[in-house]
Write a structure and sequence with these properties.
The chain has 300 residues and is an alpha/beta fold. It has twelve helices and ten strands. The radius of gyration is 20 Å and the shape is globular.
Length: 300
């Protein structure tokens, strides 16, 4: 029987799973839909994770330890309670917010992790080792650097410009094409009638395309998203986050150089001592690192 460790990265839309033998051989590396994922209540979340993990484990294997990075685990207490719920069903686990996977995935032991994907959040640790969170309030009321939040901001900016009688500089038309509607009123309905990440998030590339084509309104939206990420870092540092590095990941900041460059420019001014790394490894690598630390620690 092969002893294995597993890493799970649960985001807003997908679940990444990696399973390795204790000796380092990679056995499973795949992505599944994260449909119906909710970090609360923790008993249901633990059952959700357990079911999906055991669907993909090698047939003859012994699960030694698991590392989990999960969207929605936004306090240290919540992470601890989910780890305990997994332990109650026989899974030795370390649980963190999904943004907290970035630093170990980059091969670092400390730093600030910043995610800009479906949502946006920052995670760090203070000198005592306590986890600190900033942002991550959700795309309806925050997460301005996440794909859904960017579309929300862009729609407000484009419709505001229309209400003020300014000519469209390309953003309004780009959003109408993305939502397959004609006219600002129809755009407002299309956005409001289905306020979900599935409806908003996939339209974010239209905002970046408009910016690339010269839309000053779209560029302003991207600058606001970069400022949001910079503010997240400000708040973590002000609360005592210990870091010489920022590790950034997520589909938006990795896939859209305009956002990455705008964020880097702000950090160069506000926190010049912090080095920014755009994570090249998938964050699930960090979950594997946490699983191996759990295994080596011997903690139950």
């Amino acid at each position: 029987m092969t002893r294995v460790v597993a890493g799970l990265d649960v985001g807003g839309t997908k679940l990444a799973v990696r399973v390795e033998a204790v000796d380092g051989r990679r056995l499973v590396d795949l992505e599944l839909p994260a449909e119906d994922w909710s970090a609360s209540p923790v008993e249901a979340a633990a059952a959700w994770l357990h079911t999906r993990l055991h669907r993909v484990l090698p047939r003859v294997s012994e699960l030694a330890a698991v590392g989990v990075g999960a969207q929605g685990c936004d306090t240290q207490r919540h992470c601890t309670e989910l780890a305990m719920a997994l332990g109650a069903i026989g899974v030795r686990a370390t649980v963190v917010n999904d943004a907290a996977l970035l630093v170990p995935a980059a091969g670092l032991t400390s730093g600030i992790g910043v995610v800009a994907g479906t949502g946006a959040i920052g995670v760090g640790q203070d000198a005592r080792g306590d986890t600190l969170f900033a942002g991550g309030w959700g795309w309806v009321i925050g997460d301005e650097a996440g794909s859904a939040g960017i579309v929300r901001l862009a729609t407000v900016a484009a419709l505001t410009a229309h209400d003020e009688g300014r000519p469209d500089d390309g953003l309004l038309a780009a959003l109408q094409r993305a939502f397959r509607v004609e006219g600002p009123e129809a755009l407002a309905r299309a956005v409001n009638d289905e306020p979900t990440t599935g409806n908003w998030g996939p339209r974010a590339p239209a905002v970046f395309a408009a910016a690339g084509a010269g839309s000053k309104t779209a560029i302003g939206v991207i600058d606001a998203a970069a400022e949001h990420l910079s503010t997240v870092v400000d708040r973590l540092v002000a609360r005592g986050a210990v870091a010489s590095d920022i590790v950034a990941a997520g589909s938006v900041i990795i896939g859209q150089p305009l956002l990455a460059k705008a964020f880097q420019a702000r950090i160069a001014v506000t926190h010049p001592r912090l080095k920014i790394t755009l994570l090249e490894e998938p964050p699930v690598v960090g979950a594997i690192v946490l699983a191996r630390r759990k295994l080596s620690s011997g903690d139950d």
